[in-house]
From TrEMBL:
NCBIfam families listed in its UniProt record: efp, PRK00529.1
Pathway in which this enzyme or protein is active: Protein biosynthesis; polypeptide chain elongation
Species annotation: Devosia rhodophyticola
Protein name, as recorded: Elongation factor P
SMART domains: EFP, Elong-fact-P_C
The organism's place on the tree of life at top rank: Bacteria
Coiled coil, from the record: none
One Pfam entry name: EFP_N
Annotated Elongation factor P C-terminal domain residues: 131-186
Single GO MF annotation: translation elongation factor activity
Localization terms from the record: Cytoplasm
Boundaries of every Translation elongation factor P/YeiP central domain copy: 69-123
Keywords, alphabetical: Cytoplasm, Elongation factor, Protein biosynthesis
Length: 189
């Protein structure tokens, strides 16, 4: 185990507390006007999936579990879970529905993700920061609105809702941030 300061915890970090492993779902550093800064962390216990909220001073030391982070390619999903393959040695790993969570909607055939393994069991998954998807539905383009700073609602090909600039039309491929599902730019392909 490695000790790290609480303020360095991020989504996907694995923490050991009371001899149990937890995966960090969200971590937020709060700096109130008075008093010490704190880190609020929402975690899921890996053994049984129970969600826990923890609060530490930002300078407090927390035990971070030693996990193996590797790049895997997504293959398919079935009743057992989500199947990934290591591109170097072709070993396959299955991640449970709890590990993949809401990010499953972004998984595409062959997509590279980072899996955190503990004793050869997938305990967390990290998507690429940006992915390219096609716009499935949005309002029609209005001529002359290309320089507007407003955004309009849109639905991506995977069903995720986002907002896009007015000049984007149905069928356009766009780059989306997976963390907050926001529009970045029109795809260059």
């Amino acid at each position: 185990m490695v000790k790290v300061i609480a303020s360095s915890l991020r989504k996907g970090s694995i923490v050991e507390q009371d001899d149990k492993l937890y995966v960090v779902l969200t971590a937020e550093n709060v700096h109130p006007g008075k008093g010490n800064s704190i880190t609020n962390v929402n975690m899921r216990r890996i053994s049984d999936g129970v969600k826990v909220v923890a609060r530490w001073r930002t300078t407090e030391m927390v035990e971070r579990a030693n996990v193996d982070d590797r790049t895997y390619n997504f293959l398919y999903s079935d009743g057992e879970g989500y199947h990934f393959m290591n591109p170097e040695n072709y070993e396959q790993v299955t991640a449970s529905v709890d590990v993949v969570g809401d990010d499953a909607i972004f998984l595409q055939d062959g997509m590279q993700v980072t899996l955190s393994l503990y004793n050869d069991i997938a305990i967390s998954m990290e998507l690429p920061q940006r992915i390219t998807l096609e716009i499935a539905d949005t309002e029609p383009v209005v001529k002359g609105q290309t320089a507007s700073s407003s955004f309009k609602p849109a639905v991506l090909a995977n069903g995720v809702k986002t907002t896009v600039p007015p000049h984007i039309s149905i069928g356009t491929r766009v780059v989306i941030l997976t963390e907050d599902r926001s529009y970045v730019e029109r795809a260059k392909d």
